[in-house]
Amino acid sequence: MKRALALAGFLTCVAVAASAQVADLRSKTELRVCADPAAVPMSVQDGSGFENRIAQLLGEKLGQPVVYTWFPQGPGFIRHTLRAGICDLVIGYAQGDEMVLNTNHYYTSAYGIVTRRDSPLAAVETLEDPALKDHPIGVVAGTPPATNLAKAGLAKDMRGWDLFVDRRTEDPVGEMLAQVKSGELAAAVIWGPLAGPLVKQDPELQFTPLLKETSGPRMFYRITMGVRLGEDAWKRQLNSLIRRHQDEIDAILRDAGVPILDDYGKGEKP
């Protein structure tokens, strides 16, 4: 019994020490953001991405300067940045990912199909549409739309790009959009926050959110901010900031061209 009590006391001390250690990692004088330096149009080292603008908004409300740790967003991103303790916040992270502690979501968006405005496929709203058959379609391998395209019998028509790349040297989204514009691809299926702002800059292209899929993986996802596991007080502070400044965050997203949906992915957010 004494051994059990001693062990319980030891584990409690370890838990308290670990909690304190996590809390001590966060800077109280700077908003330290973990970000990809070349994830156009989301985060960019020159500060032009819409996630950069949201970080700047948070920094202003906290009264702290924004300081970045740059690292390509792919395998090892969280391990080498947030978990290493050299930054304290990831501005955009999918809800439910177990590698971070998620804040409340601050927007919902969806994958969509990009076509030329003058394309015969411009009216397509679902990947089950038979009009897509026998047309080359760009998609990032391993993403939910790739599964839906395969289920729709379009595997032979798919032209794949890698999911994890160093965007300082590769630009899969830019390549797909360029090929849609040139006609080399008839369409491309891309995550809305990546495609929307870029399509907004090109009057020859259009982006249609995939809101009418009837099977396969869902096409819409809620986006949160990510902090270290155990940093509940920091999460609550960010939740408060998001709640109080949601209109300003929405304005940044809309200005950038990010498709913003309601919480259920059924239509545009009012």
UniProtKB/TrEMBL annotation:
Keywords: Signal. Gene3D superfamilies: Periplasmic binding protein-like II. The lineage of its organism: Bacteria, Pseudomonadati, Pseudomonadota, Alphaproteobacteria, Rhodobacterales. This is Amino acid ABC transporter substrate-binding protein, PAAT family (TC 3.A.1.3.-). It comes from the Bacteria. Residues 1-20 form the signal peptide. Residues 30-256 form the Solute-binding protein family 3/N-terminal domain. Coiled coil: none annotated.
